[in-house]
Every structure is written in C-alpha cells, then in structure tokens.
Specification:
The complex is a heterodimer of chains A (919) and B (376).
Chain A lengths: L9 E12 L2 E12 L3 E5 L6 H9 L6 E6 L2 E2 L3 H7 L3 E4 L13 H11 L4 H15 L14 H13 L5 E5 L7 H17 L4 E6 L2 H4 L4 E6 L2 E6 L1 H8 L4 H8 L2 H4 L18 E12 L2 E12 L3 E5 L6 H9 L6 E6 L2 E2 L5 H4 L2 E4 L11 H11 L4 H14 L15 H13 L5 E5 L7 H17 L3 E6 L2 H4 L4 E6 L2 E6 L1 H8 L4 H11 L24 H4 L6 H17 L1 H21 L7 E7 L4 H11 L4 E3 L6 H9 L5 E5 L3 H7 L3 E8 L3 H27 L9 E7 L6 H32 L3 H5 L4 H29 L9 H24 L4 H19 L11 H9 L1 H15 L7 H21 L6
Parallel strand pairs in A: 3-8, 3-9, 6-7, 7-8, 13-18, 13-19, 16-17, 17-18, 21-22, 21-23
Antiparallel strand pairs in A: 1-2, 1-4, 4-5, 9-10, 11-12, 11-14, 14-15, 19-20, 23-24
Helix pairs in contact in A: 3-4, 3-5, 3-21, 4-5, 8-9, 13-14, 13-15, 18-19, 21-29, 22-27, 22-29, 27-29, 27-30, 27-31, 27-33, 29-30, 29-34, 30-31, 30-33, 30-34, 33-34
Chain B lengths: L1 H20 L2 H11 L1 H9 L9 E5 L4 H8 L10 E2 L5 H6 L5 E5 L3 H6 L5 E7 L3 H27 L6 E8 L6 H32 L1 H6 L5 H31 L8 H25 L3 H18 L11 H7 L3 H15 L3 H31 L3
Parallel strand pairs in B: 1-2, 1-3
Antiparallel strand pairs in B: 3-4
The chains are: A alpha/beta (919), B alpha/beta (376).
Chain lengths: 919, 376
C-alpha cells in the first residue's frame, strides 16, 4: 500500500496515469503513492512532465488516462474536485503567474480570501498573520507587479495558504529568485509546516541542493518515474554523495552519455587584451524609479563575465542598455571601442543577444529560425547551409530541425536561442539568464559550449544568472542589488574576501550588508507564531452551486483592474461619445446637393425654365453645361455628375405645339440608394413642372388630379436624419464597445496565466463569467447615460418616451453585449482572435443587419435571419420607439422579451464553452 | 547597402507569411471575411425598394379600393396587411409597418364625381432609407391605379412631355453590386489593420520584436516587411474574392479594370497597414488597441462614402474624412469598378492615398523604436 514508505495513507495516489498533448506524450504509465504529511520533491530535467503531473494532482488539468486520487477521492469526478479544491493550494510555475500585477498585495490577498468565502474580519486576521509571517506586512499597499521575484513568490505562497490547505503544491517556487530570498522562502515553509504538521507539500524544483533537504523525492525523466525515496536512499542506491550526481546516475544510459563535469580552463592573462565592453556610470530611470544606478565595468575580450542578482535588480535593464534597446538616462557605454548607438548597424553585427524569455519565432521551424537569422546577420548565401549545419551539430539540434519550437522542451529551446545568437559568429554574446528553468544536465552542456566559445574562439561572454554553481564558472562576476553593483571580482576572490564557506554564503553576506534585509524587516524570529490553523468556515467546505460572494469578488477585482488602467476606461467612455458625435452628424440619409449638368440642344426659354426648376431646389446643384456626349461620358465616369439631362432640339417649339417631346436623363447608378432617391426627386420635379405648365396654360382647374395623396411623415415630420440616426447609433456603440472590453478581459487571463485561479479555486464558471461581466455592465450603463445626455443636449434629440423603460431595456441589452464578448473569448485562445471574433460578430450585424439604415423587414437571406433574431435589432426598435415615438415598455414588449431571451442564451453558451480544467 | 536592405525586407516579410500560415484561427477568419461575410452582406442588401411593409385601412370597400390594395405586391412591398383604424397606431409604434395607407369612405364615388378625394399615407419617417422612395412609389402606384380606373370611365390625354429616366452603370440599381464591393473595401481595411497592428502588439508582448531590434535590421525594414507581406495577403484575398464571390457567385458585372483596382488597393494597403503600425505604437496593450481600433474603424466604415453618399454629409465631416485613406479609396474604386474609369480619372485619389500612407508610415517610424522598447 504505502509505496512511499510513510506511516499514513498516501495523500496522492496515481495509477497508470498518462497524458498527451497532441503528438507529445507528456506522462506515461505513472504509478505513484505520495505519502501524506511530508515535504515531497519532484526532481528531473525540464519537459519530463513534472508540471503536468502537478497540474493533474491540483485538478487544473483534466485526467486523460489512468486514475488520480487526491485526498481520498478520484480527481476525474467533478463532485470530488469541487469538494476537495478548498483543501488544495496550487502555486504554478513562473514568478507570480497567478497574481494580478496591477493589484496591491492586500488586494490580491483579499481577492483570494473572498473566493474561499471568508468574512471581512476573518480575512483581515489571516492576511495580517500571513504577511507578518512572510515579511510582506510593510508592503501591503504595493502593486504585485512591482515586487521583486522573491517577494512575488512569497505573496503567491500567502495566496495559496490563505485557506488552510491540506495539500500544498508548489511548482518551481524558487526559480528566478536570488539566494537570500530563496533561503528565506524555505525557512518560511519550514515554519509553516511546524505550525501545520498535517499539511502535505509537493514541490518541483530545479535546484538539487534544495531537494537534499526534502523528506522524500520523486526523480522523473521522459514522462516516467525513475526512482522514489528519501535523499539518503537515493544516495545509497547510486553510490553517490550528492543528488546532482545521483540523478545523473539514475538516468538511462543514452541520456547520460556525453555528460561529464564542467571544467573551466583559466583565462590566459594578456595584459594588452582588448576591452570588449566598457560601461561608465550607466543609469536608467523609469519615472521616479531608478532601475540601474551608476553601473560601471570593463570586460576584456574572451572573458566570461557574470552578472548575479535577484529578479528586478537591474541586470536585464543594464544588458538592454548595452544592446541599445534602451537609451541610458545617464552614463556611457562602449562596445569594441564604439559608443553604443541604436543606429549603429555594424556593431550589432558583432553582437549576439539572447533575452530572458524565449523570443524566437514559435511559428517558424528550428531550421527556418536559424536560416532567417543567418540571413539577417548578413552571412554570405553560400555559407548559410554550412553554418546552419555547424550550429545544429554543435548544439545537438539535428533531430529537431524541422520541429516548431513550441513542441520542444525548454532546455532545447534555450539551446536553439543560443544557436541563433551564435549563427553569425559574433565576437560578443550578451546572455540574459539563459539557463533559468533549465535542468542540470542541459545546463552543464550549455556551459561546456560557452566555455568552448570563450576559450577557443575568444568570444566575450556577458551572462546573467542566479545559479551559484554557474557563477563559479565565470572569470569574474558582479553582484547586483537594487540597481547597483555591489562588488566585481573573481568568484574565488569574493569567497576569500568575505571569509565565507561558499559563493552563496558570500553573496548572502554582501546582500545583507547592502541592506537587502530592509525588505525583510518584519521577518519574525523562528519561534514566532505561524499562521493559525483554524477550520475554514462551513461555507468554504461545501461549495454552493452559485455563490454571489465569489462572483462579486471577481467583479471587485475586475473593477479594480479597470480603474488601474484609466486609459482603457477613458477610451471606452470618451471613444463612444466621439463616435456618437461623428456618426450622428456624419451619417445622413438626406440626399442633397447632387451635382447635375445639362446638355441643352434647344436653348429656348422653356428649356431654361425646365433646368431652373431643378437647379432651384436644394437637392440639386448645377454644374457647367455639357458640351457633347463624350464630355458627358467622361464626367459621369469620374463621378463628377450624379445626373445628366439632355434636352432635344426644338423642345420649346414642339412643346408649345403640343407635340410629344422627350427629355433624356441619366442617373449615376453606382450607389443604388442615392440613385433611387435622385430618381424620385427628378420624377417628382418633372411632375411639378408639368402641373405648373398646365396651370399656366389651361388655368388652375386642370391641375387637380382624380385623387390626391396626403403624406404624413410620422415621428420625424421633417424627415431629418438626426432623430432617426442618433437613437440607432447608441445601441450600435453599446454593442461593440462592451463586447470588445469583455472579450479581451477573459482571453487576457488565458494568455497571461491567471486563468489558473478558475481551475484550482472553488469558483464556478458561472461565478467567474458573471463576476467578470458586472463591472463592464456598469461601465456600459454609464456610457449609455453619457450618450443620452449628449443626444439631448448637443443633438437636440429629446427622449420623448419613458426614460426608465429605455434604461431597463439598455441594461438587458448591455448584459447581452458583454455576454457576447465573454462568448467570443471562451473558445478563442489568443487576444487577436478574440478581438477579431468580437468585431466580426458585432460590427456586421449592428451596422448592416439590425436596421440602422435599411429596415430588417427589407433584408434578405442570411442577413435577414440574423437581423430577425439579433438583440441589436430589437434594441434599435426600442431605442427609436422611446426616443422618437414617445413609447414605453408596454408598447414594446415584443422586442423587449425577444431581447431578454438572448441574454440567458449567450451567457449559457459562454458557460458551457468555458472550461473549468485545462485539457 | 541598398540590396541588403531589400534582402532584409524580403526575409522578414517571408517570416511574417510563415507566422500567418501557422495560425489556423487567423486563416479561418480571413477566409470567412472574404467569402461568407461578403456574401451575406451583399445578399442582405435590399434590392431598390424591397419588401417594404405596408398596411391598408380600407374604409371604402369599393372596386377601386380593392384595385388599389391589389396593386401592392412583392418584391417592392409586402402583401398589404388589412387593418382597422384603431390598429394603425400600435402597429406603427412597434415598427411593424413602415407605410399605412388610409382609403377614406366613399372614395370611389368621390373620384368618379371629380371631387379629387385625398388618401392618407402614414410613413414611419425614422426609417429614412425607405420613407422617401417608398412614399414616391406608393404615390405613383395609387395615382396610376386611380387614373386608369378613371380613364376607363372618362378617357384622358397623355402627358405632353415624357421624361426618359435611365440609371447608368447599374441599370437595375441592384444593391448587391454596390454592397459586395463596398464590403470588400471594409474588410480590406479591417484586416490590414488587425494583421499589422495587433500582430505588432502581440510581438511586443512576447518580446520577439525586441529581439529583432538588436539585430542589424532597421525599424524601417521591419515595418516595410510587415507592410508588403500583410498587404500581399490581403491583396490576394481581395482578388480571389472579387473573382469568385463577387463575379462568380453574386454575378456582379465589373465594368472597369480589375488590375487598376488592385493597383489602387495596393496603395490603400500601404496606407492602412501603416495606420495599423501607427496605432500599435499608440496603444500600450491589446485591450487598448482593441478599443482604439473600434474608434478608427467605425468612422472609416460609415463615413468614407461607402455606406451613405459623401456629398450629403456636413462639410466638417467631409473635410475630416479627407484625411482617411478609405475616403479616397472608396471614391476611386467606385469610379473604376462601376463606371469603368481609367487612371486618367482616378490619379488624384491615388496620389492622396499615397500621401496619407506616407504620413502614417513616417510618423509610425519615428515612434517605433521609442515605444517598442518602453513596453508596458
């Protein structure tokens, strides 16, 4: 039963678990019992399935194959997942990935507290306890995005611990964190575990020295478990004295082949060595924040120079200044004796740069990436194939040349990045944390390559890292903290100067001296009270089907994020007003000032009288007379004339004689609607003229016809465009803008990773979506009020009917519009796609099919069908009804109910399409 | 140096094409916008006066009134709905009928007696597009019926002057001709802005553009690569759509030179893709870009002359819209496609588009490096 060899029943039991992503087998045949109440480590290279395994255990990913039992139940069952997720805490890989960067520490914690149903007092107590214990208490008001890497991880931990989990899952919590923060993090975990001895902790880590301290380890490779046991058992089994060696010994033969310890031949000491990089007093300020403060150094040609420091201490910024990506606020830098200049193309050709994140084109294959870069770096065409072959051999990329980078494990992608940075044989490599998140074997291989480059090819390497064993391999290192360089020396010299036992200890000593502990001022003594473990309130134990509190906590968070990005809110509000203004005045269906000209072959008084009749109206403007048919043809083709008339010779004479005469008229039919209206005008004016002529000749009597028609233009007696258009543009804008806002709100969480909180907290899909929707509904209503004010005050289009009815209908309508945005973002993965769907799904129906210009009843085919059911057409009817026809809801209930029906449909669809687990 | 630059532009452009090719969602959306979206927009457009909903209150119930009622039939009008007087107001309030004709009692008797009685026509004037034309049609139809009826009883003279009115370039005033081509123009603008602008924001968020900037490549090369590659995609889609959807499925006869139209489209794409890049340098994140795009696209679509005639707009709107490339493109395409105009006619528009494009391109270029490196 107890494969792990603990006393208690296992907290996690996996049998026959497998997982595939497309063609990639991430996990295969995993059978594993993880003992309860222990600190369990998952170790192994990148891309072997550690993270996949953890997300399965946390319930964030759907089980595909096998059985995953956590806390005594099957994670494939929804009911068990819902019941157990309040007892599991999951902190995903990546610094602060599930946090909200624009929200403060306090607000992040409040949000998570609310999700788990704690009341205000309870939240206050827990937040104070946790932040005091982690030293975050003085920073409660700071936005999460502005915390250092270590502090972000502590905040992530606080968020995970706020609901007293029984199982804590941490995916590489200390990757990218400086040594001091790392040691503090583990001390914190140890303290928390002392306070909650029953809690099980599962940690994935790339640091073998950390894993040594865990209770029990699972070594993984290629989607399978290699070995399990305590660190001591693993040492014993492999006959090694450290885990790093033990792990390598556990690997199957072919994976181990080629691995040997990294040796660094000393740098030849040439007094006259050329200086590759020189920086003097480099400073970078962003607003009032100084990211880099007076940094100076000199790097010799062929030297490996290391930059050491925590995340956010200014390493990357310094490197960007050297590459010319960021112009320095102060100070100067030289590469190969040339001043750094963003426009200096020639110097760029001598430099290879590898940024922190993988920044190659994931849509291009490995080979295409290499070839593209070779070409851009001006490698001679004849040499390209050879160079690409050389790189792929040197960086062992032969097997993956035709794969897309996304399908490759991180370690291989890093090799590709380096290969790309090297393809043009640069003399200087600037590498920003190239090995972050890469496993030990791959890291060693990587370093061997670099040492080779530096020593054999005399390439200067400027590298940043937070691995101490890597720093030890550099010729010299600079310790950076808070934008300043603390010290630059060779690693051995640093250890000697501090009298420390290791580089790590020396580094921590330097950091402490530099005041890094300032951030940790509230660090309590070890015996300080750990967060109190009290039973969570009952509401959190049994998740309700729909909890308004949880939905509201999402609303509140969304509203806060909206407020932190004032540009977005302002664009939405101001933008709609501007659009209403432009379109209200601009769209006009009155056809006026049509240009016309006459080919008058008669030139009699009567023919001139006929022309005057036309020219005198406001609908037509006369242009220079037409000379001949060719002139007419040319001017009509150019669009100069909308109407051309030809009056035949003898027109006046024949008319007076009572002989039939014919006037020819041509209308520009290119724009059918305008042509039709113009046709009507011409025919009408012709009739009037005839009637006038008859009256003059025969007296008034003959003018009267057999019958007459009295036309009453209702609702808009002057038939002006404004009262017809303004009430129609408002629904148009209220559809498009809220939909665009919500569409990006959800898919953005997908792209940035915080969607995980939906997967692993008790929040349901309905709570998530509706919670997110509410702030945008409020924004939409505010928008509506502003637009109505504008319509009344500026356009002078009064609301003749019942305003409350209009407001109520608008509320329903905005619910639909925001719902549509949510719908667009449930099935798309990228922001561009969601944006595209939102535009296509709203613009065409609203502009063409809803009856803005042509009534729905006159449309045909698909457009008619869309127009009949789309809420935009119903809202248009209601809006026009209330604005111009002085109506209220009872008169418009048909349109109202048809629209109201669409709301549950669209929200229901969104909920059905949204996934509560990753697949 | 020049050839290096050209080579870089070419390489980077090919890279853009690969990126698009490996994004099935975008490809699907492009196909949709240039086929189904155009088809549905074109076919939905009502033909002249189409299916105008009409109701009649017949208080006369005479042979003449029956004759009048039976004169309304599809496709111009729906079959008339017969109403009682009290049903008129609610029906019009709910927007069920655009026109309601009220034939008074003793209508036929009064007509024959030469008392020239009046029929009342109620028009829902909030439906601007049908109100005027429809009222004109109804007037003609009713009076025609009445006159014919009277003629059988009395006989009457033909009008002395005949107006021979013809529509040129689109004799049937088929709206699908107009709608399909204008929809293509809308999609060209929409796609070219999304493909360059949104893609640039995404590259910025993923850090790949930063990577390019440290290579021996200038911002102008990066931008030109985007302009030519995405322009090419949209241009091919346009040509395809014009040939298969518009000429093939919708059977729209195209009078002018398609090559000249595509040439203009090329200039237009240069302007809109530059606009997309320019907007991407203004917005700091995708949500901001999305809103900005709406703000720009809607007026471009509604006010550039593709939806309603430009000359009827207020002067101010006309002047402002002169700064938009679509205004010139719409006017050039209408001239080429409908009226068969040649380069001798449309060159001023072409020049205008080119100038606008050049301005957007150079402003975007000036902002490019600065804004890209200061990503939010």
């Amino acid at each position: 039963m107890n494969g792990g060899g603990g006393g208690a029943a296992p907290v996690v039991r996996l049998s026959g678990v497998g997982l595939r992503y497309g063609a990639t087998q991430a996990l295969a045949g995993i059978d594993l019992d993880i003992p309860a109440g222990r600190m369990v480590g998952l170790i192994g290279p990148d891309g072997v399935g550690k993270s996949s395994l953890m997300s399965l255990v946390a319930g964030a990913r759907a089980v595909q194959q096998g059985r995953v039992e956590v806390l005594g139940g099957d994670m494939a069952e929804r009911r068990h997942r819902e019941a157990s997720c309040p007892h599991i805490a999951y902190m995903p890989q990546g610094l602060g990935k599930n946090l909200y960067p624009t929200l403060s520490v306090e607000e992040n914690l409040q949000f998570f507290g609310r999700l788990f149903g704690h009341d205000a007092a309870e939240r206050r107590r827990r937040i104070d306890d946790l932040t005091r214990a982690t030293g975050l208490y003085p920073f409660l008001a700071r936005p999460a995005g502005k915390l250092s890497g270590g502090m972000k991880q502590k905040l992530g931990l606080c968020c995970a611990l706020i609901h007293d989990p029984e199982l804590l899952i941490l995916d590489e919590p200390t990757t990218g964190v400086d040594p001091l923060a790392r040691s503090q993090f583990w001390a914190l975990i140890a303290r928390i575990r002392r306070g909650r001895p029953g809690m099980s902790v599962i940690v994935a880590t790339a640091y073998m020295d950390e894993a040594e301290r865990f209770d029990w380890l699972v070594a993984m490779n290629a989607g399978r478990v290699l070995a399990t046991g305590t660190p001591r058992e693993l040492h014993a089994r492999t006959g090694t004295d450290n885990l790093e060696a033990a792990f390598i010994a556990l690997l199957p033969e072919e994976a181990r082949r080629g691995h040997r310890a990294v040796e660094v031949p000393p740098l030849a000491d040439e007094a006259d060595a050329q200086i590759a990089i020189e920086a003097r007093g480099l400073t970078m300020r962003f607003g009032d924040f100084t990211a880099v403060d007076q940094v100076s150094f000199r790097i010799r040609r062929g030297e490996i120079f290391g930059f050491l420091g925590s995340n956010g201490c200014g390493k990357s910024t310094t490197m960007k200044m050297l590459t010319g990506l960021l112009p320095a606020s102060e100070g100067e830098a030289w590469l190969f004796g040339h001043k750094v200049d963003a426009r200096d193309i020639d110097t760029r050709r001598r430099v290879g740069y590898m940024s922190q994140a993988f920044s190659l084109y994931s849509e291009l294959t490995v080979r295409q990436n290499l070839v593209l870069h070779a070409r851009l770096f001006n490698v001679a065409v004849a040499d390209i194939d050879a160079r690409v072959a050389e790189m792929s051999a040197r960086f062992s990329l032969d097997a993956v040349l035709d794969s897309l980078p996304d399908q490759l494990p991180l370690g291989v992608r890093q090799r590709l990045s380096l290969a790309v940075a090297m393809v043009h044989k640069p003399e200087l490599l600037i590498l920003d944390e190239p090995t972050s998140g890469v496993d030990p074997v791959a890291r060693d291989n990587f370093w061997r390559l670099m040492i080779d480059l530096a020593r054999k090819d005399h390439v200067t390497i400027f590298i940043s890292t937070h691995f101490m064993n890597e720093a030890e391999r550099c010729d010299r290192i600079s310790l950076m903290h808070a934008g300043r360089v603390l010290v630059s020396e060779s690693p051995a010299e640093l250890v000697r100067q501090r009298g420390a036992e290791s580089l790590e200890a020396a580094f921590i000593a330097y950091l402490e001296e530099a005041g890094a502990q300032g951030e940790q001022a509230a660090e309590p003594a070890d015996e300080a009270a750990p967060p109190v473990a009290e039973p969570a309130p009952e509401s959190a134990r049994r998740p309700a089907a729909f909890s308004p509190a949880r939905a509201l906590s999402y609303s509140q968070r969304e509203a806060m994020e909206l407020m932190r990005d004032p540009v977005r809110g302002t664009l939405a509000l101001l933008g709609s007003l501007i659009l209403l203004l432009i379109m209200g005045f601009g769209i006009t269906l009155d056809v006026e000032n049509l240009d016309f000209a006459v080919l008058d072959r008669d030139q009699s008084t009567l023919s001139q009288n006929y022309v005057l009749n036309l020219a005198g109206s406001r609908y037509f403007t006369e242009r220079a007379p037409i000379a001949d048919y060719a002139d007419m043809d040319r001017r009509m083709r150019a669009g100069e004339l909308s109407l051309a008339l030809e009056i035949p010779p003898g027109f006046g004479r024949d008319l007076l004689r009572g002989q039939p005469v014919q006037i020819a008229a041509w209308i520009d039919g290119a724009m059918p609607q305008r042509a039709e209206t113009a046709q009507g005008y011409v025919a009408g004016m012709h009739q009037t003229w005839l009637a006038d002529m008859a009256r003059i000749r025969l007296g008034a009597e003959a003018g009267a016809g057999a019958a007459s028609i009295e036309t009453r233009y209702r609702y808009n007696p002057d038939v002006r465009s404004l009262p017809a258009i303004v009430p129609a543009v408002i629904p148009l804008l209220l559809l498009m803008i809220p939909a665009m806002l919500t569409a990006l709100a959800v898919v953005r969480e997908k792209e940035l990773g915080s969607i995980l909180n939906l997967y692993v907290t008790p929040v349901t899909r309905a709570e998530f979506l509706i919670g997110k929707q509410l702030p945008y509904v409020a924004l939409g209503m505010l928008n509506f009020l502003l637009m109505v004010v504008l319509a009344v005050v500026l356009f002078g289009v009064p609301v003749k009917g019942d305003f409350l009815s209009l407001a109520l209908a608008t509320l329903i309508y905005v619910l639909f519009a925001t719902g549509f945005g949510l719908f667009a973002s449930t099935f798309t993965r990228s922001q561009i796609a969601a944006m595209f769907v939102a535009i296509l799904g709203t613009m065409l129906p609203a502009v063409q099919f809803a009856g803005l210009l042509n009534p729905v009843s006159s449309l045909e085919g698909m457009g008619r069908a869309i127009g009949e059911i789309h809420p935009a057409s119903h809202m248009l009817t209601i809006s026009r009804g209330v604005f111009t026809k002085a109506l209220a809801l009872p008169d418009l209930h048909g349109a109202f109910w048809a629209m109201a029906l669409a709301v549950p449909v669209i929200i229901g669809l969104s909920i059905a399409l949204l996934r509560k687990q990753e697949r | 140096m020049k050839s290096r630059s050209l080579a870089n532009i070419y390489r980077l452009g090919v890279k853009e094409l690969w990126s698009l090719w490996r994004d099935p969602m975008m490809l699907a959306l492009i196909v949709y916008t240039f086929t189904l979206a155009i088809y549905s927009a074109a076919t939905a457009m009502p033909e002249t006066l189409h299916n105008a909903s009409i109701a009649v209150v017949d208080e006369d119930v005479s042979p003449l009134s029956a004759r009048v009622v039976s004169a309304f039939y599809p496709p111009h009008f729906t079959r008339p709905q017969m109403l009682e007087l009290p049903e008129v107001d609610p029906g019009m309030d709910e927007g069920r009928y655009t026109f309601v004709l009220n034939i008074p009692p003793d209508f036929q008797r009064d007509v024959l007696a030469g008392r020239s009685p009046a029929i009342q026509l109620n028009v829902d004037a909030t439906r601007m597009s049908q109100a005027f034309t429809g009222a004109g049609y109804i007037q003609q139809i009713v009076l025609g019926e009445v006159n014919e009826f009277v003629q059988r009883h009395r006989g009457s003279a033909a009008p002395p002057v005949d107006l021979n009115l013809r529509a040129r370039f689109n004799p049937g005033l088929t709206r699908a001709w107009f709608g399909s081509l204008m929809e293509i123009i809308n999609q060209v603008t929409l796609l070219s802005i999304i493909l360059t602008g949104a893609a640039l924001i995404r590259e910025r968020e993923h850090g790949t553009i930063e990577h390019l900037l440290v290579m021996p490549v200038t911002p102008a090369e990066i931008m030109l690569a985007k302009v030519w590659s995405m322009g090419l995609v949209v241009l091919c889609a346009t040509a395809f759509s014009l040939k298969t959807v518009v000429e093939g499925v919708l059977q729209v006869p195209i009078e002018g030179s398609i090559a000249l139209f595509l040439g203009c489209a090329m200039l237009h794409l240069f302007a809109t893709t530059s606009m997309g890049i320019f907007m991407a340098t203004l917005a700091r994140s995708m949500p901001q870009f999305g809103l900005l795009m709406l703000l720009v696209l809607l007026p471009l679509q509604m006010l550039s002359g593709g939806t309603t005639p430009r000359e009827s707009m207020p002067e101010l709107a006309q002047h402002i819209m002169l700064a938009a490339p679509t205004t010139h493109f719409v006017s050039a395409s209408q001239a080429i496609l409908y009226r068969g105009a040649g380069l001798d006619v449309v060159w001023p528009q072409c020049l205008a588009i080119l100038a606008i494009g050049a301005v957007f391109f150079s402003v975007a270029l000036a902002r490019f490096r600065k804004t890209i490196s200061q990503m939010a």
